[in-house]
Design a protein that fits this description.
The chain has 261 residues and is α+β, with helices and mostly antiparallel strands. It has helices at residues 8-11, 15-33, 91-103, 116-122, 134-139, 156-166, 186-208, 218-229, 240-255, and strands spanning 43-47, 54-57, 73-76, 82-84, 109-113, 143-146, 171-174, 178-183.
Length: 261
Amino acid sequence: MQIRVSSDIVQECSAAERQARIDLAAAHRLAFMHGFSEGIFNHLTFVVPGRNDRYYQIPFGMHWSEVTASSFMEVGIDDGKVKCGVGDVERSCYCIHAPIHKGLPQAKAVFHTHMPFASALTRLENPHIKEIGQTEVGMIDAIAYDDQYTGPALDPREGERLAKAIGNKTVLFMANHGVTTFGVTVAEAYDRLYYTERAAQVQIYAMWTGQPLKQLPAAVIEKTKRDIGGGAALYDGPSPAQRHFDALKRILDRTEPDYVS
């Protein structure tokens, strides 16, 4: 199978569309670099800037390590048809992502992975991230938990169900499955993906020792939430999530600069 892409697509885009494609390509490369990908499966999508009827998706069969800014198809949110670009639309991507993009206007970026540590927690009777450290406490209130696994997502009604489970959160733990993160920007969704896996990894490492987990006192938990929640106000300019993502992109600029093409 040969997947055809054309750099002409990027040259013909608006500045906002080009930046969105570059950022989404970076997210795919970084997710592979960080061990978040699973073969040719899982999905990172973003609504086309200035539109509410289509989103970016890579052709089914493309590996995340080879994604570039010109790789993306534009897929119709209502009908799942390719509006721009060439390739096959992976069915579960459309059935999960399109209803979430449509039902949750704040979910411009929707990142679904089976990354190992977070996915391991979804296999447990109690998959919750525990308030045992600073990173965990900082994201507790952003996480929703779906306790049903209904099988492969091959019907848009599954995406509609997940959108209801998400509510106003930015991370969803999907029972016996994986995780999905959300953001207004690619940077926000990737930052959530990164720290969700880090929190899950540390928790599992702590559980592996067999020793009791040290729960933080309630007063410290509340103080930590307040301090972390107000942390962005300490700095002018880009958000911490954007600064993190920009730093990660600089790694790609040095090692895999073709992602922007």
